[in-house]
Structures are given as C-alpha cells and as structure tokens.
Input
Amino acid sequence: MPDDSLLNRRLGVLGRNAPLFYDRPVHIVRGNGVWVEDVDGRRYLDAYNNVPHVGHCHPHVVGAIARQAAELNLHTRYLHESVVTYAERLTAMFAEPLDTAMFTCSGTEANELALRMARFGTGNTGIIVSDFSYHGNSATLASLTTAFDVVEDFPSFARKVTVPDPRHDGQDVDESALAERYAAQVSEAVQSLQADGMGVAAILIDAFFANEGLPDPVPGYVAQAVDIVRAAGGLFICDEVQAGFGRTGDATWGHELSGVVPDIVTLGKPMGNGHPLAGVIASNDLVSEFQVASTYFNTFGGNPVSAAAGQAVLDVLERESLQDNARTVGAYMRRGLEKLQSTYPVVGGVRGRGLFFGIELVDESSSDPAPALTKQLVNMMRDRGVLLSRIGRYDNVLKMRPPMVFSTENADLLLSTLDDSLGAL
Ligand SMILES: Cc1ncc(COP(=O)(O)O)c(C=O)c1O
Output
C-alpha cells in the first residue's frame, strides 16, 4: 500500500483504530437502491446498511432535502410548518399515549434525552439495560454499554440483565418458564437499585435485541420485565433505532411485536435515510413537564431540512409498501437460510424477522459459537461482492439488514453467494 494511499491518510488523520469494515476495506463512492459502487466501478450488493432505509440515494428523499436546503434551513426555535407536519405524521404512527416528538440528530442524543426524561418523570435514578447492549456514545450511554469495550466503568446507578436466548439457554425449559427465569433477573435488579436508594427510573432495551444477536423472541418476556419495572415506578424506554420504521415486516415498530406500549420510544438510523435525524416519542404530559423543568433545545435536531428528509422517508415507505416488502422478502430469505442450515452443519441457526436476519455460525463438531469462521465468511462475502457484517454475544451471527427495497432477486443473489462462500469455507 503506497504511503499516500487513502487508507494511510485515514490512519493518520482519523486515528489508527477508527473502525473500518473488512480485512480489505471497501472504498465506496456511490450508491443506488440496494447497490453501492467502489472507486474501481465494482458493484456490491448492500445487505448490511439500514441507514439508507428506503434505498441509497432515493431520488424522492434527495429531492426533498435539496429543495428544502435551497429554501430555508435554520434551528428549531421558529415556527415552521413542515416540522410540525412531520411530527404530526410521525406521532400518528404510535399508539396512545405516544403523541409527542422531540427531535435530535443521533440515536445517542435520543437515548440520552430519554434517560433524562425518565429520571425526571419518576424521581428515580436507576437504569436497567441488557448485559449485551449498546445505546450510544455519550458519557452516560457509554458507561451503560455492555456489548463493547469502553473506558467508562459500568455505573453504580445501573444493573444488567440477560435477555433470553432460547437457542443457548432455553433448551431445557418451555418458553413461559424461560420468560419467568429471565424476568426474575429484572426483579432482582429493581430490588438491588431500591436497596441502594436509587429506585428504578427505566429499563432501556432495544425492541429487537439487535446487538444481543437477534435472539428468537420469548413470548411474554418483555411484558413481564416491563410490568416489574412499572410496578416499581419506573418507565419502559424502547430503543427503536434499529428495529423501527417497518424493518421487521410484521409491525412498524419492534415493540408492537411484544404487545407492550413503551413510555418512551427512541428513534434514529433509518429515520432520515442518512440525513442525521433521530428523536424521542413520549406522551405530551411527560414531554411538556420535562420542558418546563429543564430547558432543552437542539440546534440541528428536527430542522426544516431534517423534517423534509423524514417526511420523504415516510412517503416512500408508504408509496412503495416497504413494510410489506420486508415481510415477504424476509420470509423468503428465511426459507433460503433454513435451506442453507440443512446443507451446512456450520450454520447452527437462523435468526431474525423481516429484513433483519442472521445465521449463527458454529463449530461443526462441538456446536460452540465460531467467531473466527464468521469473520472469515464476512470477508469472503465482501470479496464476492456482498456487504454484510456480524454481531451477537459470541460474535458469530451474520448481520444482514439491507435497505428496505431489497427484492427476492437480491435475496437470491445473497443466498447463492452465501451458498458459494459456505461451500468454500
Ligand atoms: C440500538 C442502538 N441504539 C442507539 C444507537 C446509537 O445511535 P447513533 O450512532 O445514531 O448515536 C445505536 C447505534 O449503533 C444502536 O444500535
């Protein structure tokens, strides 16, 4: 690699350990729909990126951003109709009492704000998170991170609980016993926070347990966990940064699948199709009372250009029936992945729902998680022109979460490339 290569320039100026995907990083210069193209003109099927939710560079979103940017963009302390219209449209997508929006620029800001609101609303300070989670990179959220290394210590105001993963922990018991077994951890966490005088302000969980590796949902677990927290005066903050906007196919929001309406929902990644738009949805009372007690404004969050991007995303989701597409193509993908599981013993399980799915890679003889093989497979797929990544507690779940315009033809290509790579593994 020549000294003046982009990679070396990057190492020099962005830090030697700034994360970069793949052993041979991809230098992408343009995108369209589910495709991205590198600097040499090679096309890659994007089976990974959920931020370009309605497709890379969707012309309707690009046009809306460009038109609004050419007309007006300024901070949010002026009246602007499209910001209000967007908030009305967005909040109408939630059940009562989730009728009010606060906009931010990132999922981190949304979760940070949600924690502040939960503490204010309950008068408690304790927070419960899963023991393999990530919700953002602010000081508080970094300290609550249990899925990755962080310099902050896990705080004394927080407790971790394990989310049930039937494939690993549930083989000896039925689902309701499993839900109870893990809900008991939530009870213990609440009692411990109370014993330390903090009480519980909130349980903060990802609606789809994405970073946990997409464990199959255990019916009743979320409802039981939330009941326990609410009985102790705490709130349910549901992080929909990954699961929201129809990704699961069966529902617009991940929390709908668990049948529990959260007290606070946080949104991000797909919301602006790449434009930095995120937010918090809660009841008007909670938001309004917080706004009196604590001055909050966000210079960029929910500005007119962001609102234009957000509205355009909703337009495309509706016009192109992308939630339906996620359901049908997701089911098709799942069948294909199950077929691969029956062919390759290294595929230990199929996970996910809608256009968020994964396969779990295991050692053929011991059935233990196989993170090194998973890493190898991710790189082999990249070399064969398909972008994906890996996640989970054991780093052995292939993470596939393509733009919502992913078609059955794209699924066929993904499946045949996986077949080819698994065969070569
Ligand atoms: C579940 C979840 N919540 C929150 C975040 C933080 O979002 P952002 O990177 O926009 O701050 C992430 C980012 O990966 C996430 O996966």
